[in-house]
Amino acid sequence: MTKPAPVRRKLSAGPLSTGDKWFFRSTSIAAYFSFVLVALVLIFLFLKAWPALQEQGFEFVYGTKWVAEEGQPLIMQIGPMIWGSMLIALVGVLIATPMAISLAYMIVFMLGSRLAKVATTLIDLLAALPSVIIGLWGFYVFTPVAINWETTLHQYLGWIPLFKVENVDNAFRGSPFIAGWIVAVMIVPIVTSVTREIFSQLDKDLINGAIALGGSRLSVFRKVILPTSSGGVVGGVLLGLGRALGETVAIFYVLQISFDINWGQLLESHGGGVASWILARFGEASSGEISGLMAAGLVLFVITLIVNFIANTIVNRSQPWRKD
Amino acid sequence: MSFAPRPQVQPWKRANTSRRFQILLASVLPIAATALIVLFAGFDANLATISIFLPLQIIAAGLVGLKAFGRRGFGDAVLVVLTIFFSAFVLILLLSVFLSVLSEGSKAISLQFLTQNNVYISNTTSLEYGGVANAILGTLLIVGITTILAVPLGIAMAVYLTQSQSKLRGLVRTVTQALSGLPSVVSGLFVLSIIVTFGFSKSGIFGSLALFPLMLPTVARVAEEALKLVPSDLRLAALALGAPNYKAFFQVILPAAKSGLITALLLGLARVIGETAPLLLTVNVNNGTSWNPFNGPMETLPAYVYGYLSSSFVSAHQRAWGAGLILLVLVAVLFGLARYLGRAKSLKSKPTKQKASK
C-alpha cells in the first residue's frame, strides 16, 4: 500500500504571539488612517460643496464673477482666484529657485562643515516661522521696501508687459509682485532643503573626476552637478509650488484681492488667491456662500494634491538611496 | 602660426601677496564705490545694491579670476559672487524678519501683557491695559490636545513604515507625504464642514482637530527618520533572544530612539503652533479667559495677531507685534530644543561606534 503524500506544511512568516498580532494590527490601523483622513477630507468637503457646485456648474472653476448680496441670486465663480494663486505661486517659485539653489550650493560645496550646519539650522528655522508672522512682517516691513522696488521697476522696465501699470495711483501696494516675494520667503526653505539633500548625496567621485579632468567650479556645476541632480531639484521646486498654492494668511495681509482678473501685470494692486479668498469671505458668508467656499477649498485641495503627488514622485525617484 | 603664451595656471599654489591684495581690492572696492554713490549722489540704497554693487562686484571678482586663472577663473568668480549674493540676500530677509519682530514686539511686552486677558480692551486702549494670557492659554490647550492625538498616531505610522514588512508601505508613505502638503485653510474647512454637518458649535476642540492633519505628517516623517537611525541589529538581536516584536519595540527600539521621537514631537508642535487659518475657521475668538476647550469660544495667539492686525490703530498694531514676538519665541524654543536633542544623540552615538570597532 502506498502512503498518501504528506500534506504540504504551511509556511508563514507572520507574527506568532497574540501580543505581536495586536502590535502590528494597531500600527497598520494607524497607517491606514492616513488614507481614511484624505478620504474624509474629500468626502466632507464634497458633501458640503455639492450644492454650490451643482448650482454653478463648471463655470465655478473658470467663471469670473462672485455676487453674494442679499436679495440677489448667488453667483460664485473662482476663476480669477485660481489664476491669481497660480500667478503668485509662479512668481514666488521664480524668485525662490535661484536663491534656493545658490544656498544649497553654498552649504554643500563652499562652506566648512560647522558653518554649513549653522546655515542648515537657520534655513530650517525659516521654514518653521509661522505664516502669520511672515504676514505681519510683510505688511509692515517688507511692503514699503517692495513698493520702492516696484516703483523703480516700473520706471525703468515699464515697457515690459509684466511691469506695465495702467494707473500709477492704483498700483504697487497689494500687488501680486509683493505677494510673490512673500511666498518666495516661505518656500525658499523647503526647496533649499530638498536641493541640499540631493547635492550632498551626489557621487563625490564624479565631481572629483570632473575636477581632475580640468573642470572649473562653473563647468563642474553646469556639466556635472546640475544634470545629475536636476530631477530632484525640479521635484523640490514643485513641492515649493504646492506650498505656495496653499499659502493663506501671509498673502491675505499683503495682497489686494479683487475679482477683476489680473492676467500678469505684476505691479497692479489687484490679484487673487483661492485660500486668501476663503479667509476673506467666510466671516460674513451665508450658508449658501459657505458651500461655495467649501467648493473653492475642494478645488484647492485637489490641485495641491496633484502637484504634491507629482513632486514627491519625482523627488523619491531621484533619491534612490532613500529606499529601504 | 603662433599661439599666444597661455597664462600659467597652478590652482594648487597658495595665493601670493599680490594675488591676495587683488582679492582684497576686489572685495572692498565695489562696496566702497556703491557707498560713495549712495551717500553723495543721493541714489536709492536698494536700487544701488542691484544695479551698481552687483555688476561692479561681478566685474571686479571676474577680473581677478581672469588675471589669475584665465577664462575659467572668470566663470568661477561670477558663480561664487552670485552664490554669495543670493545666500546673503536670504540671510538678510531672515534677519529682517527676526529683528523687526524683536524690536517692534518688545515695545509691547510687559508683565501685565503676559498675565492679563483681553476683556474691556479695544483697538485704541493704551498698552498699559490688557494682555495675551488668555491667548497663550488657549494656544497651549488647543495645541496640547492636538499633540495628544497626533503624536501616538504619528509614531505608530512610523513604526508601521519601519518595522512591518507590509507591501502597502510605499503607498502609505506617498499618502502621508501628500498629506503634508495639505493647505492649512483646507484643513480648517474640513473641520468646519464636520461642524456644520453634525450641528456642533465651534469650540477649542475643533481647533485641535483642524490642526491634527497638519501635525500628523510632520511627526510621522521625523519619527520615521528617528526609528531608521536605530541599528536593525539591535532589533534582530532582541528577536533572536526570543522577544516578541512588541517587546523588542518597547524595550529596545523605543529607548534607543527616544530623543529622536521627542524631536518629532517638538518639530510637529513648531509646525502647528502658529497656524492661523484653521483656528480662524473653527474656533470663535474670546476676549476672556477660557479653560474649557470643549465648549465655548477660545482665544489663540495667531487669532489674536490676526484680529489686531486688521485694525488701523497704533496700539493695536503693537499688540499684534507683541503677540507675534511671543509666538516667535515659542517656535524658537521648540525648535532649539529639538535641535539640542538631535545633537545630543549624535554625540552619544559616536563613542559607541568606536567601541564596536575595537
Strand proportion of chain A, as a percent range, falls in under 5%
Instruction: Give the largest chain-chain interface (CB within 8 Å).
Output: A-B, 95 and 97 residues
Major sheet: arrangement of strands of chain A: 1-2
Reported for the largest beta sheet of chain B, the result is: none
Kindly estimate the percentage of residues of chain B that lie in beta strands according to DSSP.
under 5%
The CATH superfamily of chain A is identified as MetI-like
- In the CATH hierarchy, the third-tier topology of the largest domain in chain B is known as MetI-like fold
Shape of chain B: flat
According to DSSP, the number of beta strands of chain A is: 2
**Distance between termini of chain A?**
53 Å
Question: Can you tell me the residue ranges of chain B where pLDDT is under 50 for at least 5 consecutive residues?
Answer: 347-358
Report the biggest beta sheet of chain A as strand number plus sense, adding barrel if it closes. Answer: 2 strands, antiparallel
Annotation, overall tally of beta strands of chain B: 0
Cα-based radius of gyration of chain B, to the nearest Å: 28 Å
Count of discrete domains of chain A: 1
Order of helices and strands of chain A: HHEEHHHHHHHHH
Number of helices of chain A: 11
Tell me roughly what share of residues is in helical segments of chain A: over 70%
Helix/strand-derived class of chain B? mainly alpha
- Bulk shape of chain A: flat
Describe the structure.
The complex is a heterodimer of chains A (about 325) and B (about 350). Chain A has a two-stranded antiparallel ribbon. In chain A, about 70% of the residues lie in helices and about 0% in strands. Chain A is mainly alpha-helical. The model of chain A has no long low-confidence stretch (mean pLDDT about 85). Chain A has a single domain (about 75-320), classed as MetI-like fold. Chain A is flat, with a radius of gyration of 26 Å. Chain A has eleven helices and two strands. Chain B folds into two domains: about 15-95, no CATH class; about 135-345, MetI-like fold, CATH 1.10.3720. Helices cover about 75% and strands about 0% of the residues of chain B. Chain B is built from 14 helices and no strands. With about 350 residues, chain B is mainly alpha-helical. Chains A and B meet through helix 1, helix 3, helix 4, helix 5 and helix 8 of A and helix 2, helix 3, helix 5, helix 6 and helix 7 of B.
